[in-house]
């Protein structure tokens, strides 16, 4: 799981609230984290692998949207590997971990492992948050015809730059001037929690606004294609709206427990004695949400693939060769760098009547088909546009 409490636990003089949750059934908690992360890791990879029985042919290079979705999955996979490694060491070498609590100890490796593994997990999940924010921005800009494959470089710079900067800044403030004094006052801990939860809160607050504006812009584009708003076009707009809703639903499910848990622990930290009887229910709620975090945080990777592409099936094609996604162009030409592949289900919903020949209509079709990448409808389950197909 991903929580700033992981870094706080590396302080020998950690606060009482952190001590409470980290010492609550550590074997059970680590086992839960390993189990959840392992299941999510295997199912995520299964979702992204190419499947047998798919008819694929050549297409243009992948869109920025599919690239971002793939990068989100990669961040979740690497973050899950960090959780598995960290929890396995905690279970397998309890004596090694016990040395973290030794003040002024001579063995630096336990503390180095504690800090390094916690930073790895936090950095990867934080980068995933920034990529999810970039996906919302890119979706809106594509509909406004202001983005293309060239903008992916800017997204890389923003995502990795901000993720690394905030992570390093938060850790530096927390451990200043040394591990032995990192919890002597909230002035060390609060900046660390702010830098950790800033991208999470950004996604929770800003992404729904961007998604809503994108859906409104899609409706306007669909109405403007032929001057009418047919049932097929309304259905496509609804599919895009549902896709955005699924993404936010998964995010809220996986991370709302973190916000609740952190609020409860901060409340306990402000009390003179967290072991008082009137605080029993607060302590119980904090411990329950702590276990829930260990289950839901690692499951984000698999749940996101379901939101992005739906269930892709079990039949994996292990004959590695260059994979291309099945697509049909809305016209006979592309529009430079900003052209996007059109998924089959979009063709079946929208392109039943006639082709749009003008450049403006073609750009509209390509922008909307990019947003519907990965959607499935009816019998089109074998033609979903998983980004992994576009990379082989």
UniProtKB/TrEMBL annotation:
Recorded GO CC terms: apical plasma membrane; lysosomal membrane; melanosome membrane
Compartments in which it is found: Apical cell membrane; Lysosome membrane; Melanosome membrane
Keyword Membrane: yes
Main location: membrane
Pfam families for the chain: Ocular_alb
Bilayer topology: Multi-pass membrane protein
Segments crossing the lipid bilayer: 28-49, 69-89, 109-133, 153-178, 190-211, 244-267, 287-311
One of the GO biological process terms: melanosome organization
Ranges where the record places region Disordered: 371-392
Annotated keywords: Cell membrane, G-protein coupled receptor, Glycoprotein, Lysosome, Membrane, Receptor, Transducer, Transmembrane, Transmembrane helix
GO terms, molecular function: dopamine binding; L-DOPA binding; L-DOPA receptor activity; L-tyrosine binding
Quaternary assembly: Interacts with heterotrimeric G(i) proteins. Interacts with ARRB1 and ARRB2. Interacts with MLANA.
Known role: Receptor for tyrosine, L-DOPA and dopamine. After binding to L-DOPA, stimulates Ca(2+) influx into the cytoplasm, increases secretion of the neurotrophic factor SERPINF1 and relocalizes beta arrestin at the plasma membrane; this ligand-dependent signaling occurs through a G(q)-mediated pathway in melanocytic cells. Its activity is mediated by G proteins which activate the phosphoinositide signaling pathway. Also plays a role as an intracellular G protein-coupled receptor involved in melanosome biogenesis, organization and transport.
Family assignment from sequence similarity: Belongs to the G-protein coupled receptor OA family.
Name of the molecule in the record: G-protein coupled receptor 143
Record organism: Chunga burmeisteri
Gene (UniProt): Gpr143
């Amino acid at each position: 799981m991903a929580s700033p409490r992981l870094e706080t636990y590396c302080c020998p003089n950690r606060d009482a609230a952190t001590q409470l949750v980290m010492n609550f059934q550590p074997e059970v908690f680590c086992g839960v984290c390993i189990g959840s992360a392992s299941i999510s890791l295997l199912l995520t990879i299964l979702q992204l692998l190419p499947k047998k029985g798919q008819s694929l042919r050549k297409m243009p290079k992948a869109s920025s949207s599919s690239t971002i979705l793939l990068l989100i999955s990669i961040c979740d996979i690497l973050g899950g590997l960090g959780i598995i490694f960290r929890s396995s060491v905690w279970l397998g070498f309890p004596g090694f971990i016990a040395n973290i609590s030794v003040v002024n100890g001579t063995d630096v490796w336990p503390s180095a492992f504690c800090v390094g593994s916690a930073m790895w997990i936090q950095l990867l999940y934080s980068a995933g948050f920034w990529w999810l924010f970039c996906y919302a921005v890119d979706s809106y800009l594509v509909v406004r015809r202001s983005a293309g494959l060239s903008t992916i470089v800017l997204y890389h710079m923003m995502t990795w730059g901000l993720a690394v900067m905030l992570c390093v800044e938060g850790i530096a403030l927390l451990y200043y001037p040394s591990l032995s004094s990192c919890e002597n006052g909230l002035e060390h801990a609060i900046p660390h929690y702010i830098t950790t939860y800033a991208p999470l809160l950004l996604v929770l607050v800003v992404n729904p606004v961007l998604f809503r504006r994108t859906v409104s812009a899609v409706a306007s584009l669909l109405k403007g294609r032929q001057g009418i708003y047919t049932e097929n076009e309304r259905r496509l707009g609804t599919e895009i709206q549902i896709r955005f809703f699924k993404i936010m639903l998964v995010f809220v499910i996986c991370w709302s427990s973190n916000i609740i848990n952190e609020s409860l622990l901060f409340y306990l930290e402000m009390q003179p004695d967290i072991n008082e009887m009137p605080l029993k229910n607060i302590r119980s709620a904090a411990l329950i949400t702590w276990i829930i975090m260990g289950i839901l945080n690692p499951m984000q990777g698999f749940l996101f693939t379901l939101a992005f592409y739906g269930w892709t099936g079990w039949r994996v094609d292990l004959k590695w060769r260059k994979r291309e996604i099945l697509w049909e162009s809305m016209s006979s030409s592309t529009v430079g760098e900003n052209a996007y592949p059109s998924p089959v289900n979009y063709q079946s919903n929208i392109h039943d009547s006639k082709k749009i020949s003008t450049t403006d209509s073609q750009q509209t079709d390509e922008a909307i088909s990019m947003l519907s990448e990965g959607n499935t409808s009816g019998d089109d389950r074998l033609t979903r546009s998983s980004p992994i197909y576009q990379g082989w």
